[in-house]
Amino acid sequence: PGEDVMNRPPRKLKEPLFGKKGFIMSLAQGIGVLLAMLAVYLLAINSGFSEGQVRAITFSAIVFSNLFLIVANLSWGNPLKVFFNGNRALRLIFFCTLVMLGAILFYPPLMNVFHFEQVELKDIGLAALMGAVGAFCTEPFKILFTKRKTINSLV
């Protein structure tokens, strides 16, 4: 939706910043991420991880879900297209965030600040996967909405 933002007229002063559909979509994304984070947390606790490991895995999942929410909200179609279509700022944000996350998870002085304990990469991979699931859970609704909008414009 942001590709033609500079070619559109400005929003009317009386028009709300957030429409009903945008609010509902944001609420659905929030609920999706919340449920995914709860699943990560419960899975980590029930798998016998220590408190510090659970904290590290859940924190990682939250960071990944926020990164994936950025991509999900920039795309109304193929999320990979947003990432690889020359959006250097997005790639820089991803790179810096992942470097900082890596430092926080694996550099002992930073681990101590957050009270994290050592975790394996496969556990961080699961956190990333669950972050993606939570962030992209509304994609089918976006696709349905876009198709319905296209069909309604043809009628």
Question: Tags for this entry?
Answer:
single chain; 155 residues; mainly alpha; 74% helix; 0% strand; elongated; disordered C terminus
Tell me the fraction of residues in β-strands, as a range.
under 5%
Sheet of most strands: none
- Low-pLDDT parts are 150-155
Mean pLDDT: 86
The share of residues in helices is over 70%
Task: Kindly describe this structure.
With 155 residues, the protein is an all-alpha fold. It has seven helices and no strands. Helix content is 74%, strand content 0%. Helix 1 packs antiparallel against helix 2, helix 2 packs antiparallel against helix 4 and helix 2 packs parallel to helix 6.
Summarize the structure.
This protein is mostly helical and 155 residues long. It has helices at residues 20-46, 51-74, 79-84, 88-106, 108-114, 121-136, 139-154. It is built from seven helices and no strands.
Secondary structure elements and pairings:
Blueprint: H1 20-46, H2 51-74, H3 79-84, H4 88-106, H5 108-114, H6 121-136, H7 139-154
Helix pairs in contact: 1-2, 1-6, 2-4, 2-6, 4-5
